[in-house]
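re the bet — no i am not wrong, look at it urself. input seq straight from the record:
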Amino acid sequence: MANRSYIWNTATPDANPWNHLDGINQGIEFVEIADASNRIPVPWLCCFRGAELNKVSIPLEPHDNGFQPEPLIFELPWIEVSTAQKNLQESLHIFQELTGDLLLGEGYWDYACRGLVDLPLPYLVLNPIDVFFMNDPLEEAEKFARCLRESSGSMELIKHLSFFNEYFPAFPAHDFYTLPFSELNHQARLESSRALDAAYLGKNNWYWHRAIEQKHTPPEPPVQNKVTREKKQWWRLW
């Protein structure tokens, strides 16, 4: 099963994913705009550079013997959409340094920038918790926080967190976004492309987290006739 990471577009500046989920019952909705498997993509790490980091307690499931382990504490980010857009626009050099090719890096960077336009809510939240658990979660969380804190970033940390394969070049962005995966038949190059891909769902596939209105249609009154009119119906409580 894939370990997934997500970007949520939210109404409130809070990095704790459980707070947003709890807020649904209070009418506070948010939308999932990006979803990646087994990685934290390069564009995301660029967007959230210098973001506010909140300490979040991650509860763990009890062991089979009933022992309840202590929760883990991760630092997770939130950022204003406008700041994320600015960060990404200023990150072209990171894409070009990773790829070693000006045009190749620019193709993925351009796609990432265009995907952050016209978002409906003012904040972005990055939830990489599942990906941390692909290795030692505390070590991965520490690397993640360090990567976001460093002003110029660490290329080694970016490669590590995005699972970028530096030994095999990514496919050209046009090919990656237009050709069927059956034609992108080099797994290592595909991994490099996925690391550079912002993994947007697209506006038509955004997943809104919102309360579902429960509409109960009142039952139709039972048809009574001369035979049953005086008899107490089964559905009556009085």
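see?? DSSP finds ten helices and six strands in the chain. told u. also The beta strands are 4-10, 30-37, 52-58, 72-80, 123-127, 207-209. so pay up
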